[in-house]
Amino acid sequence: MDKFIIEGGRRLQGTVAISGAKNATLALMPTCLLAPGVFHLRNTPNNRDVWTFSRLLGSLGVHAELNQNTLFLDSTNVTSTEAPYEHVKKMRASIYVLGPLLARFGEARVSLPGGCNFGPRPVDLHLKGMERLGASIEVESGYIVAKTTSSTNRLQGNHIHFDVSSVGATVNVLMAATLAEGETVLTNAALEPEITNLARMLVSMGAVIDGIGTTTLTVQGVDALHATDVDTIPDRIEAATYLIAAAATKGDVTLRNVNPYHLTAVIQALEDSGAELDINGETIRLTMEGAPKPVDITTAPYPGYPTDAQAQWAAYMLASTGAARIRDHIYPTRFGYVSELQRLGADITTDEGSCTVNGGSKLSGATVMSSDLRASASLVIAGMMAEGHTDVLRVYHIDRGYENIEQRLRELGAVIQRVPTDEY
Ligand code: EPZ
Fold this sequence. Notes:
Distance between the termini: 8 Å
Shape: elongated
Strand content: 25-35%
Oligomer: single chain
CATH class of the largest domain: Alpha Beta
CATH architecture of the largest domain: Alpha-beta prism
Helix content: 25-40%
Structural class: alpha/beta
Number of domains: 2
Bound molecules: ligand EPZ
Number of strands: 24
């Protein structure tokens, strides 16, 4: 197992190229199960979640190979419709194979994903959507057993309303609807840019989808789809993480390969805190001088402030001149990182679904433990802000969604090393 050793107090300066979006890639990869053929997913990030999903697709008969950030998928010979627990337990997004397998093969047996460190992660909206498309759903021994029930062995188009805006349920049900018989209308569909990336890929495969980019998606089912190539959108959460890290270290950092339109809420919060941002096409330059003003944030579905960037904001606000409140309405228990930040000397209090960061305390290096992907990013940022050395344990969490993070931070002037360790 690896840990990071960080020596704090360095300003980040320079340029960093942002990778393709992990959460788009995880939605694009399972589309290969909807049609036989060879797919190329360009701008794919080289991270642990992509490797995990590639192994899952491999277990279904898909040949997956990542080469220079292009993911090659050959789904000519899908040999199984079962996603075993050994894969699904590692990554919740594995459930995204349910919709495509059900739509193309009429059946699927997919392990229920576990929860994760920041709370329960239900899948009821995924299952209800499949039932609304005419599937029978049973849960047996921790597995979802899904079957079509029509005489044609195909899903049936229907109207589906999502009671909660759900990225994953929208991904799963949208993919399934493309091969259902008849029209499907999804209302209160998620608006995240990753959904738009997926919808456009499905259209390039021959799907018929109207309303892309809105909360109402109308799908005319087709009999078959075909393989395609796609460009993955930039990772808005990785970008937000580097922008926040730059501001937290009073740095001067330019991000390349970003889509600023996907970052409006984060850019606004950073500017409210006193950072200066210069946006020019696909680059954003952030410069920060002095301590940030305290800025409250409340997470919300896109285009609101992303829940995946709230832990990073908490670390940043440790440098602020007052108190900042961070509310997470999407994952009210996603504050596991707070107790770790307190080990560095942070003055943070937590309440139901929120925390309050009292900025200005002196931060001193310590050993801290990652608990999930974005909490890890928060600890790395705080480690770069603290005086002395900080060891961040269990960095496999961060490797799930940040390609070469220690190398990229070193190139920006951080003092950070990855070392093997028996500590965990
Ligand atoms: C996606 O998770 C992301 N993961 C998460 O990013 C992100 O935090 C989340 O969306 C919210 O933006 C991927 O895209 C792979 P949801 P997902 O369904 O799809 C409730 C990261 O760090 N809900 O949009 O699982 C749920 O409890 C990860 O990259 C149900 O009630 O999230 C939550 O309160 C972590 N029933 C809300 O909806 C369901 O069936 C939003 O969840 C599904 C979700």
